[in-house]
Amino acid sequence: MRFPLPILILGCIYLCLPMLTKGQGNSSFCANTALVPVFKQDFGQSPSATASSTAPAGSTNYNFGNVGTDGNYIVTSRVENANKSDWTKGRDHTGNTHGNFFLVNAGGNRNIFLQQTVTGLCPGSSYSFTAWLANVNTPLTNSICGNNPVYPRITFKILDLSDNLLATYTTNNLPLSPNAGPVNWQKYGFQFSLPVNTTALKIQMVDFWGGGPACGNDVALDDILFEACVPKISVSLSGGDNVCIGKDINLESSLVNSPYTAPAYLWQKSNNNGNTWDTLGTPGLGFNQFPILNAQLKDSGWYRVLVAPTATNILNVTCGAISNTVKLVVNPLPVLQLQSNAPICSGSALTLSVLATGGSGTYTQFVWQGPNGFSDSTANLARPKAPTAFSGTYWAQVLDSKGCTDTANISVQIDSTPVLQWVNLTDSICSKSNVSAAVQASLPQSNISWTAVNPHGIQLTGNFTTSNNHQFLGSAQHAQNQSLNWQLKALATTSQGCNSSLLDSTIVVHALPSPALAGPDQIICANNTVLQAQLPATGTGSWQWISPTDSSVHNGQKFSTIAPALNNNFIPQSSINFSQLGHYALQWLVSTPFCGTHADTVLITRIPTPQPILNVADSAQCGPASFSFFNKSPLAKHYGFIWQLG
């Protein structure tokens, strides 16, 4: 489309010039400004209270000296150095010793209080142009000026490098200062958004009245600043600032009064209380959070974030903002080890203990959990008479004074303990008899071990064996003539080494009676004799007459039916009396209460006194002859005869 030339020219004027920002009256300041201003003029310090000096070359078009007349200035530390009686008294607005300010008697066809080119500006930023200003005139000046003094007004200007006006701001009338001071310092200024692709500007502070002659219009300027507006940045730690290893932490930032449309972020960390800082990653848009996953000890330190209008200016201290500093402490975890006396056998005490190291070194809590809902808060514990149901995995957790924990587990095995009982037992035997015993174990695969113990130290002889591990067979014999006891013990053992309670039974072994020895048979003529039985080593001996059941005859003589008279039935060599001739059968019995009786018989024959009877007549013969003599005595065979010739 073709436009008429006038229209094109006007369009270019509108499109090619920056938009002009004008302000007047109340000042507006940035809530927060960059760490370092782009430009700062505080005019330094004087060597003495009465000294004065010049402003930087080219920064003003006023003349130095004789500030009592229009168009002149001095840089000094006291208003009194102007020697103007109607001016106020006092120092610069900060109160620094010999701190200077710019003191000017405006007019004299001069109007530039300050001018400066500023460079290194950050695109996308807003800037604040401010100064502390004071009207040094007082009520005394009113009278000098006929109550119609000119009140100073200052215009702040921002121009491009081609002197095109981009923004301006003019103060209201600066109020008078008291006659005797102090100086009525007040801050003035405005904010300005930097045009696109602009990195340098000119700034000016000029006399609103144009520098013409005027009564009054005397002003002091100090602490002139051109600085970037920045947001207030608040950094906080989500997840806590005193955490344990492994915790997920998130550093979060928030911006208040941000002039940035698309701010860039760069997180930093310090390991020396903020003396030096290391960058974390690279700057980027939208990095308003910085996660720390699975925090470790090395993550302890101080954190902050830098925010700037663009990533390229993130380290530019004249346009970037720095947040508050937060401290993160990552505490080491305690290390927990669990110990147990398992594997154990059921019925034994189960002990569980903890060994905690590391962390803070102070441990405030222990918590146990185990099978079947078990829980306990004792560090070292014992579970008496533990059944097999206590088997399983036990977990424990330790908590230290920093709130850090560690968890460990241990597997506990409790093996079954067999129960052993007698099912057959002979607990009283005679010597040389077999002992029979049998037990039954609750766990069929148990191994049964047997022992036979004599507490008196008397040697037992015999063959003790086991059959199928569940029976005990054996015999016991002893050489002494007394009974004794010995212990038969059985123990069941599983393949895991679990032992039953010891079964213990007393086996009474009785001595056998000694053989009965009644002594030799006797043939006597007298009516008494002494029996010759042998005293038994074991058992009790006693005599017993055997009464004949018939009239049986022994060697031609009948057994007497009248009992002999024993002097003592229990004496082996007891005397005995017989009332008549005949045979007497006596039995010597050796017996024990438990193991029976041995018997032996002795035959006592009482015969009459011998009387020889010759059945021959007297006779005489001559010459060689033979004679026969016969003893006709009864029972002759029981006697001994001697023949005599006389």
Give keywords.
mainly beta; 2 helices; eight-stranded mixed beta sheet; six-stranded mixed beta sheet; disordered N terminus
How would you portray this structure in words?
- The protein has 646 residues and is mostly beta strands.
- Helix content is 3%, strand content 43%.
- It is built from 2 helices and 48 strands.
- Strands 2, 3, 4, 5, 6, 8, 11 and 13 form an 8-stranded mixed sheet that branches. Strands 15, 17, 18, 20, 21 and 22 form a 6-stranded mixed sheet that branches.
- A hairpin with a 3-residue loop joins strand 47 and strand 48 (596-606).
- The longest helix is centred in the N-terminal third of the chain and has 12 residues, at 5-16.
- The chain is rod-shaped, with a radius of gyration of 69 Å.
- The termini are far apart.
- Residues 1-19 and 458-465 have low confidence and may be disordered.
Short overview:
The chain has 646 residues and is mainly β. The protein has two helices and 48 strands.
Describe the oligomeric state of these chains in a short phrase: single chain
Counted by DSSP, the helix tally is 2
Main sheet summary: 8 strands, mixed
SS-based class? mainly beta
Residue runs with pLDDT of under 50 for 5 or more positions = 1-19, 458-465
* Outline: rod-shaped
Radius of gyration: 69 Å
Number of strands: 48
> What percentage of amino acids are in beta strands?
35-45%
Q: Cα distance, first to last residue?
A: 209 Å
What percent of the residues sit in helical stretches (DSSP H or I)? under 10%
Mean pLDDT: 86
